[in-house]
Amino acid sequence: MSHSPGRDHVVVDLPAGRLRGAVEDGLTVFRAVPYAAPPVGDLRWRPARPHPGWTGTRDARADGPSAPQPYREGGDPVLGGHGSPPFDEDCLTLNIWTPAADGARRPVLLWIHGGGFVSGSGSLPGYSGATFARDGDLVFVSVNYRVGPLGYLAFPAEEGSPADDGANPWLTDQLRALCWVRENIAAFGGDPELITVAGQSGGAVSTAALAGHPEAEGLIKRVILQSPPLGLDFPTPEAHQERVDAYRDLAGAKTVAELRALDWPELIDAGLGLLARTVRWGYWPTPFLPVVDGVTLRHHPADILTRGAATGIDVMIGWTREEATFGFALDEGYATATRDRVVDRIADTFGAGRAPEGYAAYARARPGSRPADVLMDLITDELFRVPALRLAEARAEAGRPVWAYQFDLPTPAHEGRLGAAHCLELPFVFANFDQWAHAPFLAGLAPAVRDGLADSMHRAWIAFVRTGDPNHAGLPRWDPYAAGERTTMRFDAVVTALADLAGDARILHEGSAHSPDLMI
Predict the structure, then answer these.
(1) Known catalytic residue: 422?
(2) What whole-number distance in Å separates Cα of residue 250 and Cα of residue 311?
(3) CA end-to-end span of the chain, whole Å?
(4) Catalytic residue, candidates 82, 213, 414, 422
(5) Does the active-site annotation cover 201?
C-alpha cells in the first residue's frame, strides 16, 4: 500500500484500487469508500458481499448516497434532519477521518449511527469524525448500512434466497464493514488490532450484536454502547415471516423476484404502509427490527456481551435520564394520560398487585410529576436504563470491567418538556455543536455549561478508545461499575461519580419481565 500526498489531496493504494482523499483543516478525509458490493439486483436482501474493486483512481472527496429511507425536509421537531440525501441502494460505504495516512497505527473508532432501524446516515454532519481524529489522534470511521425494509426484512424461505442468508441484511453489512476496516485501516494510519466499535440507539444494538458475533471474534477490542434499547423484544423467525408476507402484499409482489424488479422508492412506500399497520400508542412501534434467526443473530444483543468471546471486550455503556421523551414528550396524546391508565400500563411490568407501588415509586422519584411523566420514566427504564444496568451487573459479576454513565443535562427547548432526551448527548460526545446548529433540542443551552460538559464527555470517549479506561484529568475519579459501589458517572452541568445512581430503578425492576408489550 502506498501513499502519495498532494497539496489538497492524498492518494492511497488499496487491494481494491486507488483512492483519492481530501486534506481538510489539517486532516486527511476519505468519503464514500465502498466496503461491499452494491446490494442491487440479485443482491437486494442478500448478505453483503466484498466489493469487486475498481480501476484507475476513485475520487473519495465527496459524500456518497445514504441508504434509502423516508425523508422530509427539516426532519423531526427534536433532531431536525435525520437522513442525509441523496439516497440510493448503492450506499455501502465508509467515511474516514485520520490525522495522516501513514504507518502510525493509531487507535480506530468505528461509528454505527442510529435511527430507529429505519433511518439515519453515517454521512450526517453531526457524525463528522474530525474532532475525534484531531483531539484524540484517532482514526475515525463512520459506516452506512441498509435500514428499513431493505435492511431489516429478508426472504430466506423464497426461491433464490438460501436459508443460510438469515434474516438480518443490516448485520451482514456491518460485519463486512468491520472486516474491511480490519484489512485496510493500516493504510489510513490506523491500528487493526485496536478497533473500538461505538454506536448510539439502534447503532448501539448493532454494536452489541457485533461484539459477540462469531465472524467478529478477535476483531473488536472495545465497545461503547450509548442509549441501546436493549429492552426491546425482537421478532421470532415466525413473526418476521408474517411481516414479510404483509410487506409483499403491500408492495403488490407475489415473489421475491418481483420485489427485486421494483425501484427502491416503491419499496420504501410499501415499508411506510407496513409501518402504518403497526403504529400504536407505544414506543418504538416499527416492524423493522433485528431478528434472532439462529443464523446471522444467535442471541438477543442484551445477552451477547455476557457470553463467550465477548467477555474479553472492554465495555462502556451509557444512557440519558429521559430517553423516552424523544418519542412522546411533544405528543399531546401522551400529555393527557390518566393515572389509572398509567397504573394499568405499569401492571404489565410489575403485575397488578405491585402496580400502585410502582406508580408511587416513580412519582416519588420525580416530585410534581404528571401521569405522563411517570409513563416516560417507566419506558426509559424498561427500554434503556434497566437493561443497561443488568448488562453492567452481569459484566461486573463475571469480573469483566465495565464503565457506566448517565447523561443528565436537560435542554430548555420545548419549554423543558424533553429533559435529558434520547440523542441529546450526541453533540457533547462529538464536541461539534457547529454541526448540530439545525437541531431544535439544543436551543437555549448555556454555552459555558455546554462546552465544559462536551469537553468532559468527548475526552472520556477518547481515553476509553485509546486505553480502555475513560478517566482523564478533567473528570472526578471514575471507577468501573462493580457490585457494592456500582459507580456511575453523572454527566451534568457538574460532572459527578455517584454510587448506584440508578439504584431505585434497579431494585424496583428486579424480577420484572425482560420486555413487556410497550403499548399503553
Answers:
(1) yes
(2) 43
(3) 57
(4) 422
(5) yes
